[in-house]
Amino acid sequence: MKFLSKFMENLGVHFEKNGPLERWYPLYEAFDSFLFGSNQTTKIAPHVRDSIDLKRIMTTVLIALLPCTLMAMWNTGYQANMALEAAGMAGFEGWRGMVMGSIGCDSGSFTSNFIHGSLYFVPIYIVTMLVGSIWEGLFNIIRGHEFSEAFLVTGLLFSLTLPATIPLWQVAVGVSFGLIFSKEVFGGVGRNFMNPALVSRAFIYFAYPAQITGDAVWTAVDGVSSATPLAQVGAAEVGRAMQSLDVTWMQSFLGTIPGSMGETSTLACLFGAFVLLITRIAPWRVMASTLIGALLCATYFYVQQSGTNPLWAIPPHWHLALGGFAFGLVFMATDPVSAAHTHTGQWLYGLLIGSVAILIRVANPAYPEGIMLAILLGNVFAPLFDYFVIQANIKRRMIRHG
């Protein structure tokens, strides 16, 4: 490693200011920082001095996402293998069929499930990172900015929110739109007012709804339909909403249900929440207030009931284990850039997200999943919350000091 470090140090001379390769410094810095980290520190006010840097923050978030990532690969394969067994299919066409033909599609085998799911998740992740890195590199070279590890998290979050069957070209289009129009046009890392991963997914949802909605997109087997639990409840008869489910609450909590690849397991999200909270990277006020807002809103609907909408009958504790609520609460709503920053603002921000997420999920049967739009709405209001909180503090201080 000393040899490599010395080599990179000597190579860096050519990329420094007034060097022959000065324009390409962002590419050199990205590779050097990835291998050895950064030795740059703040020296003057008003910057905060701390032992943590952006690389350590993003590394911690990636560790927190690891259980969701592993679950994404295992559960995707598990759902596909179960569908193949139920349909009596010995195999399927394409390169994935060739790979699984030598392993066997056995839903009772951890290896078979994990490898089968990886054949869907890994290509999506590779396309996301490749296309995203191209856009990041292009804008960094034009502006002369350094590469940021933030995209490693954005790319993984985006990949985990997708169904396994989504076409790869749509993945490329989605991540391109999200990075360009929610981050780069505003100046890059730290200047985006919306979560880029959510903007990317929202774009795909509205631009290509056939590939991200319905019953045929959640199981990675052609011709097999498998509705998510939320869709099952939405299509049930009034008065028999929960009886229509073919899964238990514990199955939903563990994540062995159809859905977006990385969003199904509340248990995996809880591990991520523990890591983010114990390291103080995610604000606990946002998580707590989002949870409180969701439970209060869900309780209201559950108590009131409805004669026409079966989604009103979902018990509050079920909402926490269905859809992408837990994933959004832990990893999306707590984004340090697009979330509120004042303590009071974080409470208001989380309450808004939690209540609106359940409101959209329950009151709109055509869209039985509201956490994505709720967080984007919260991102829009976050600066306003902080502004009014700061103005209120200023007024109190002026009154106090006469």
Task: List the defining traits of the structure above.
402 residues; mainly alpha; 0% strand
- What value does the average pLDDT take? 88
Q: Rg to the nearest angstrom? A: 23 Å
How many structural domains can be distinguished in the coordinates?
3
- The outline comes out as globular
Low-pLDDT runs: 41-49
* Helical residue percent band: 55-70%
Q: Give the tally of β-strands.
A: 0
Note the main sheet: none
**Total of DSSP H or I helical runs spanning 4+ residues:** 16
What class do helices, strands and sheet pairing give?
mainly alpha
Taking the alpha carbons of the first and last residues, their distance comes to 62 Å
Run of helices and strands: HHHHHHHHHHHHHHHH
Can you describe this structure?
With 402 residues, the protein is mainly α. It has three domains: 1-37, no CATH class; 54-226, no CATH class; 233-402, no CATH class. Helix content is 61%, strand content 0%. It is built from 16 helices and no strands. Helix 15 (343-363) runs antiparallel to helix 16. The longest helix is centred in the first third of the chain and has 34 residues, at 54-87. The termini are far apart. Mean pLDDT is 88; it is low at 41-49.
